[in-house]
Design a protein that fits this description.
Elements (H helix, E strand, L loop, with lengths): L3 H9 L4 H12 L3 H6 L7 H15 L4 H5 L1 E4 L2 E4 L12 H11 L6 E5 L5 H9 L4 E6 L2 H13 L5 E4 L11 E6 L21 H4 L10 H10 L3 E10 L5 H10 L3 E7 L5 E7 L1
Parallel strand pairs: 3-4, 3-6, 4-5, 6-7
Antiparallel strand pairs: 1-2, 7-9, 8-9
Helix pairs in contact: 1-2, 2-4, 6-7
Length: 274
């Protein structure tokens, strides 16, 4: 029977050593301490079969988060499926800016457009418990993941299926946030870093020959009718879309448009208020 140490050595010949260790821990239920202190521990057949399958799929480029079905964001574990994007740490910038705008507001109404796995909406609901948080997504599969995450993490979010503002007729909010698709269709980056495994609908603006701004343009154009006085709109975007985003906000009548960088100094979130 294969031991923990032998299984780890097998995997390290094919994939990154950290990925190998994490996959072995998920497949067997062992800890990092177990691997160090008891590498001679046998791995039962079904666990090794699962581990070997994961190693082969990881070697072929499938993201680790999809293999194990979860990922961490802001210290919380969110369940995932290939119906949703894998959380990126850069999105924390959007959360931090949103929380700053909500500070001091009494029972603010907030909506997250294109919620995906629900990381933004759920994090806002947990970190600003006085807020009434809604979330919208076009994908039934994504909403199933988001609802499950909200239930697991013990918070209430009002989920809606539909295209951007379509399910929100007549409603107004203190804050609108979004991490919309902003990669241009045909961008060569879509073939790299596991992106072929992530949902294309959540990555690109679906505009052949476009510049990745189609979804952002729609959100900005319709946001004013769904914002209360002095309400804020904040959205994540690509590294080269800050100036275009500010121009769209100004053209739509928003005040004080700005762009905020992520920790790497790359333009990441733009926003403005009425």
């Amino acid at each position: 029977m294969t031991t923990l140490g032998e299984a780890l050595a097998f995997a390290r010949q094919r994939i990154d050593r950290l990925d190998a260790r994490l996959l072995l821990q998920y497949a067997t239920g062992c800890t990092h301490a177990d691997l160090l202190a008891r590498p001679e521990t046998p791995v039962i057949g079904p666990a090794f079969a699962q581990f070997a399958d994961w190693v082969a799929r990881r070697a072929a480029g499938e993201p680790l988060a999809y293999l194990v079905g979860e990922s961490e964001f802001r210290g919380r574990v969110f369940q995932l499926s290939p119906a949703v994007l894998i959380p990126r740490p850069e999105t924390e910038v959007l959360l931090d800016l949103a929380l700053e705008r909500l500070a001091g507001r009494q029972s603010p109404d907030v909506v997250d457009l294109g919620t995906g796995s629900g990381i933004v909406a759920i994090s806002l609901a947990l970190e600003c418990p006085e807020a009434r948080v809604s979330a919208v997504d076009l994908s039934p599969g994504a909403l199933a993941v988001a609802r499950n995450n909200a239930g697991r993490l013990g918070t209430k979010v009002d989920f809606h299926e539909g295209d951007w503002f379509a399910p929100l007729a007549g409603r107004q909010f203190d804050l609108i946030v979004s991490n919309p698709p902003y990669v241009a269709e045909g961008d060569p980056h879509l073939a790299l870093n596991g992106l072929p495994h992530e949902p294309r609908l959540a990555l690109t603006d679906q505009d052949p020959g476009g510049n990745g701004l189609a979804c952002i343009r729609r959100i900005v154009a319709d946001a004013a009718t769904h914002l209360k006085p002095v309400g804020w709109l904040l959205f994540e975007h690509g590294y080269d879309q800050g100036e275009a985003s500010r121009n769209l906000l100004a053209a739509a009548g928003f005040k004080e448009p700005f762009t905020h960088p992520d920790l790497a100094g790359i333009d990441r979130v733009s926003g403005a208020h009425l």
